[in-house]
Design goal:
13% strand; 9 strands; Butyryl-Coa Dehydrogenase, subunit A, domain 1; two-stranded antiparallel ribbon; 47% helix; Butyryl-CoA Dehydrogenase, subunit A, domain 3
């Protein structure tokens, strides 16, 4: 692979849209293989899609958040797995880099082709503090895009050598510092890869499980990513933090999927006469009303995400980011994922028998939509949390 990136002369959303013909061509093969094809990986690198959110101080683009959302949506329109991989890698690498020493971040993430994949945090791992770093043991799942990244990572609470919890930060009221919880970045070649990604949709993300055993990770590659006291980059993206960045990208992915299914359904309706109806689909009032409603749902959800993302981004840039901003973006992204899912399901059903054909334009994208809908970012308890916040009742705050 040629990892040199030509001078960027177009916007990221434009570059993402320009990739659509290639992604359309390779989509079925990537779905079959369970990973992105080398030709597509190379094209993503050439379009500099792995450094969208990285700090400018290490050669990244450090994009404005709404432009990032538009970029991921454009990729999702073409291929959901590619969008999922690109969002996962960008948020993971950028928030890690923002909490690393600048030189380390540049060495790790500076090249345009490296990327970072990792699985979700859990309580079964072990990271022991030792001189100069940590000894990490555990297994993790859902390393989206990990078949194409140089780096893997993981998350774990930290223990002292005697097994007691390790703390960081100032002592508060005689209770000691906060529990130390960190992310760890290591070479993919240092992990054992477990080929267990047999799933309904998002197949080309290749989201394998992986494990490490007593792996030494130096201090400089063990960031406390979203801890304000360890953040070295001042930009608004890093003030917002990983959870809401992931949410913005994954919700935009689902909007892209839904928009593609919607436009495919509209094209079908223009030329099809359903055997279950006395009139052509395009002349049927129910179909006409449904299509108008789908357009409204997708446009409204997209506008809400972009509005909330811009408000939060600008507030973070001005040093005025509040919980209200975070809560609003949380609601917009969760709502958007669920609206997109509803439209995807409805378009699949409205298409009739053609939608079930492997050779048709609906089946793979419907599977992708259903798999994306199961992600934590789409879960309705987030909306319940927003409701409690509006009501002003007792409200444990999470995922903001």
């Amino acid at each position: 692979m040629d990892t040199r990136v030509p001078a960027i002369t177009t916007s990221a959303p434009e570059r993402a849209r320009a990739l659509q013909p290639l992604l359309d061509q390779h989509g079925p093969e990537m779905d079959r293989r369970g990973e992105v094809t080398p030709e597509v990986v190379d094209a993503l690198v050439q379009a500099d899609m792995l450094r969208l959110l990285l700090p400018k101080s290490i050669g990244g683009q450090e994009m404005q958040l709404v432009e990032y959302a538009k970029t991921i949506e454009a990729l999702g329109y073409a291929d959901a797995s590619v969008a999922w991989f690109i969002n996962q890698s960008n948020v993971s690498s950028s928030t890690s880099a923002a909490a690393m020493p600048t030189e380390t971040a540049r060495e790790v993430f500076g090249p345009p082709s490296v990327g970072l994949a990792w699985g979700a945090r859990h309580s079964r791992s072990k990271a022991i503090k030792v001189p100069g770093g940590y000894r990490v043991t555990g297994s993790w799942s859902f390393a989206s895009g990990g078949r194409h990244t140089t780096w893997l990572g993981c998350h774990s609470a930290i223990q002292n050598p005697d097994g007691t919890p390790h703390t960081r930060g100032p002592i508060i009221e005689g209770k000691g510092g906060r529990a130390d919880d960190r992310s760890f970045v290591f070479l993919r070649s240092e992990a054992k890869i477990i080929d267990d990604w047999q799933v309904l949709g998002l197949r080309a993300t290749g989201s394998d499980s992986y494990s490490v055993e007593d792996l030494f990770i130096p201090d400089e590659r063990a960031p406390a990513r979203d801890a304000p006291e360890e953040r070295r980059e001042p930009g608004p993206l890093y003030v917002l933090g990983s959870t809401l960045l992931y949410a913005t990208g994954f919700s935009s992915t689902t909007l892209g999927i839904a928009r593609r299914l919607f436009e495919t359904y509209v094209a079908l309706a223009r030329g099809k006469h359903s055997r279950a109806s006395p009139s052509a689909m395009a002349m049927n009032g129910a179909n006409q009303r449904e299509i108008g409603q789908f357009e409204a749902k997708l446009s409204a959800a997209r506008a809400f995400i972009h509005e909330a993302a811009l408000e939060a981004y600008e507030a973070a840039a001005a040093g005025k980011l509040t919980l209200d901003h975070r809560i609003r973006l949380r609601l917009a992204t969760t709502h958007g994922m669920n609206e997109a899912t509803d439209v995807s399901v409805a378009c699949y059903r409205a298409a009739g028998t053609i939608a079930i054909m492997n050779s048709g334009p609906f089946e793979r994208r419907f599977r992708d939509a259903m798999s994306a809908s199961q992600h934590l970012q789409a879960m309705m308890p987030h909306v319940e949390m927003v409701g409690r916040h509006i009501l002003g009742v007792d409200n444990p705050i999470q995922h903001v």
